[in-house]
Structure formats: C-alpha cells, structure tokens
Amino acid sequence: MLVGLLVATAVAISGCGGSPADTPVATVSPTGTETTQTALREPRQLVSRNKTLKIRLVAQMRTVDLGGKQVRALTYNGEYMPPTIRLRPGDQLDLTLVNMLPEHTNLHTHGWHVSPRGNSDNIYLHIHPGQTYHYSYRLPKDLAPGTYWYHSHGHPFSEPQVLAGLSGAIIIDGLENYLPPELRNITQRLIALKDFQVRDGAIPTAGIDSNAPTTRTVNGQIDPVITIRPGETQLWRMANIGADIAYKVNLPGTRFLVIAQDANPVNEPWGADTIVMPPGSRFDVLVQGPAAGRSTLRTLEYTTGPAGDDYPETTLATLVSTGEPMTPAALPATFAPVDDLAKDKIDRRRTITFSENGDSTQFYIGGKQFAADRIDIRARLNTTEEWTVNNTSDEEHTFHIHVNDFQVMSINGKPYNARGWQDTVQLPLRGEVVIRMRFRNYLGKYPYHCHILNHEDHGMMANIEVVP
Q: What are phi and psi of 28, to 5 degrees?
C-alpha cells in the first residue's frame, strides 16, 4: 500500500523534453541496418508547490525490468530509477522514509548545504527494518542551483544499497537564470548514470566486485535514444549516481560546455570533449546538436590505477540528430559570480592522508578506520581552512565532504584553474590535492570520505565537527 504513495502537496510531472516512456525509436546504423531502440525516459518529478514539498519514499526490494530482464533490485517506491525531487532555494522538504529492507538504512541529500543535525542531513541515523522516519530540510535561500542527488548512507551498507538501486536525482531550479534570455527555455535532460551487476537474478548486495563486468545505464535504461535537432542547444544534467565506478564521458564530434560542477555554477563556462566523472560527481552542460545523423554517447576506457579498477569503453546512449536544423545559439562566455577562496585569510592548514592496506581490502584516513563516535577534526565556524589531501595508495580515491563545498587550489603541486566550488575531487594515485573550505552557517558533526562506496564502507571515512 505504501509503494508510490505521495502526500497531497507533492506534484508529479514528466520531465522536460524527450519522448513518452517506452517510445520505440527507429534508427539506422552506419552500416545501414535499421534497429529499434527506446527513447530516453525522464523519471517522474516531484515538484514543490508554495515553497513546500512533502513526499514519502519506501525502500524495499522489488523485481524491476532492466533492459528487458526481470531483476530483483533495491528500490524507492518500487522504481530502480526513482522520482527526481525538484525544489527551489528557500523551499521546505518534508520527507518520510519507510525502511522495508532487512538491514538499517538512512538518506543523504548529497551536496546540500543544510544542517547535519537532528532530522536534517544526518547520516549517523539508523532507520531499522520496519521503521519510519521523518526528515525535514529547510533549504537556504542562497543554495546554489544545479543537479544534486539522494542516496543511502547507512554505514556499512552504502555500497550494496546504492549499487542495488537506492539513488535518485535532485534538481534545484535557478541555473537557467544565468543563461542568456534566448537559452532560458531550452530542453533539459537528466543523464543519470547508474550501473548494475546481476547474480542469481538479483543485483548482488554481498561479495561485490567493482571491477567485474557491469551494465551501464542512463536513467535506468540501456542505450536509450536521445533526440536533438541539428544546431539545437540542450541542457544536460549529467550525474554519476552509482556506488563505485568512474565514467569518462565522450560524445564524438560534440563538445560539452560546463556551466556547473557539483551543483556550483561556474564563473567561466569551459568546453571539454571528454569529462571524467568519479562517483558522486555532477556536471551541468550545454550540448548543441551536430549535423543530422547519429552518434554515440559513451564512456571511454578508464583505469583507477594498478591497485584499482579497469573499465572498458561502453556505449551509454545513442544521440539522434534529426528534424529542421536550427541556427546554433551563441554560447555564454561568462556565467555566474563565484566566491573566490583564494582571497580568504587561511585560519588553519591541515594534511589529510588517504591510504589502504596491501591487498586493498581495508582503507584508512589518517591511518585510522572510521568510527562513528570519534571526532577526527574540529573546525571553527566562520573560518577558512586549507587542506592538503594526500593519496599514498596505487589507486585513485574520490574525496567528498558533506555540508560545505570546497575550492581546488592545486593538483600535484600545479595551480588549478578553479572556475567554482565542488564537492568531489579525484585524488591522483601517489599524489595530492590542495583544497580550501569556508565553514559557514552550520554547527555539528558530519563526514568526509572516499565516494567509492566500497572504500567508504571498509573504513575510508572520518568525522569533522564544526564548533562555535
């Protein structure tokens, strides 16, 4: 009875752009063979009304259709690709989470600058099997617009719960306000990247090997068709909402123009042929339709190092450029104001070390494994700190911190041209990244960790407490 139940103040709408769900699209391959694929589907959207959104999410195992096969997965409201939560800065979100799983879980609103205490973004909560918990989030009026996501953060079950399906997208509106007027009503598409493995008819929740063959999906679909007109400009909200693996996203013949990274609008949009997306990262990009025809959105070969994983090149989606050509719009050269932390006085400098044991089964920060009740760092409110984050292992790690985003200052000693803040950064193997953070608005304890969730679950997480 609880599955799919929404409180009356939630509004469910279809996504912007795209074809109706399960619409077959006939495409012709370069060899002339006609095939039928499914159009990209947008997840249902739950949108705030009168500055309030009330929703109910039920976490449970269900059988879902993944690429035409029936697979047991963990779902929110019975969906492998659950609803997108859509809000505006200053809104109130009241979220009821019902746990129908066999172990505890909780919910993390990844990237939000909100309180880490009580029934807000508190990842130390254990919502036990059969329990219901009520979260309440008050978004600050200056919360940055862009693409965020929500997922289980129930230690030590983060990896299996997210891999099996417990992740979805969040959109905070307002990014389009920085675009030129002629681009403010363009088609928006969610490109949510999730991967799954199947063992005995289910996505495994034990004995997971992140280096094993895995199926990549976009919005829970395998190789869907994305349509665009030649010359048309679209806004793609690309988000890696999987548990462990990185993507190296490429669209031959088309450049991505990045206008926000990790839901932080940039001051100067930057173009890229290829974007590396470690777990948890998001990039809001402008894409312009190529000449009529088809091309392949793909993830290229990528390795995280000798002790890490090797991912093969894989097709993510098929882009079909069709219809009446449009004159390409002029793309913005400048975008949003950015608070440059390079100008801040540094109140404290720290060195943080990520490491692992010889067989890459145990992971450490500062030589220690995670303990929920231990405070590893105390920082003072309204101060700015500079952290040198070292990686002493032979694989990359993905640094992430809750509540307060950061500005990258340098990578391996080379100054970094930061065009804005971010909440994830890839740590090079045997290397270092220097970041700056300003601790503002919120007191309390929250974690920083590797967002490769296997590493987090096996110790690579620590606690910071912000004090007056």
A: -115, 125
Count of beta carbons in the 10 Å neighbourhood of residue 280: 26
Mean pLDDT of 11-28: 46
The tokens describing 19, both together, are 């074809």
**What are the CA-CA distances from residue 290 to residues 16, 34, 203, 295 (Å)?**
21, 21, 37, 9
Q: Is this prediction's pTM over 0.90?
A: yes
* DSSP reduced 3-state for 343: helix
Is the distance from CB of 85 to CB of 54 less than 8 angstroms? Answer: no
Q: What is the pLDDT of residues 131-176, one digit of tens each?
A: 999 999 999 999 999 999 999 999 999 999 999 999 999 999 999 9
pLDDT at 32 > cutoff 60 = no
pLDDT of residue 3: 34
| Cα of 27 vs its chain's centroid, Å | 30
Amino acid at 371: A
Strand order from edge to edge, sheet including 282-288: 215-218, 188-196, 233-240, 282-288, 256-261, 264-272
Identity (one letter) of the amino acid at 326?
A: M
* Domains of the chain, first to last: 11-175 (2.60.40.420), 178-321 (2.60.40.420), 341-467 (2.60.40.420)
The b/e string for 203-215 (b: 16+ C-beta within 10 A; e otherwise) is bbbeebebeeebb
**Residues 6+ away with beta carbon under 8 Å from 210:** 243, 244, 245, 309, 452, 454
Q: Which helix (H) or strand (E) holds 158?
A: helix 158-163
Cα distance between residue 254 and residue 82, in whole Å: 29
Q: Which candidate, 5, 15, 86, 14, places its Cα nearest to that of 49? A: 86
Return d(Cα 313, Cα 126) in angstroms, integer: 38
The whole-angstrom separation of Cα 164 and Cα 162 is 5
d(CA 107, CA 116): 12
Q: Are 326 and 232 in contact (CB under 8 A)?
A: yes
**pLDDT tens-place string over residues 220-266:** 999 999 999 999 999 999 999 999 999 999 999 999 999 999 999 99
Q: For residue range 308-361, what is the model confidence (pLDDT) as tens digits?
A: 999 999 999 999 999 999 999 999 999 999 999 999 999 999 999 999 999 999
